[in-house]
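Below is how a single chain appears once it has passed through the pipeline. First comes the sequence as given, then the structure the pipeline wrote out for it. We keep one example in the README because the format questions we get most often are answered faster by looking than by reading.
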Amino acid sequence: MHQQLRNIMTSNVFTINENQSVQEAAAIMSEHNIGSIPVVNDNGQMTGIVTDRDITLRATAQGEQAQTPISQVMTAQQIVQATPDMDADQAAQLMAQQQIRRLPVVENGQVVGMVALGDLAVDHQFDDEAEQALSSISTPSKPQK
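Resulting structure:
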């Protein structure tokens, strides 16, 4: 029997409006110890996702101001997302293929949850799926000579 994402996803997901600032996104991430936030428009429809890496590379490293709108640094094209009825194996395969660690769960355009690689690993039932995804996502680092 395959477990649906609706049964393992985190349903208390913090979102940010596309007009809010990079500083506001970073503050939410810091306060809640999270690495990504789905970005929504005024109607609550998901329009993108912003990660701590996006903020670092697309804002901070480029000298952008803290008040830069999230819409300027978020990933907006080809947003990888799941549905609540997708099973854990499908989600792990998608995460591995797309090289991502966090997967927004969307229903009717609205963010209803988030599945992280850790969610798959917490339940021993999904050890194989989590291991498969992690091995595809993470490349071991090598010391520089």
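The first strand starts at residue 16 and ends at 17.

See the next section for the split statistics.
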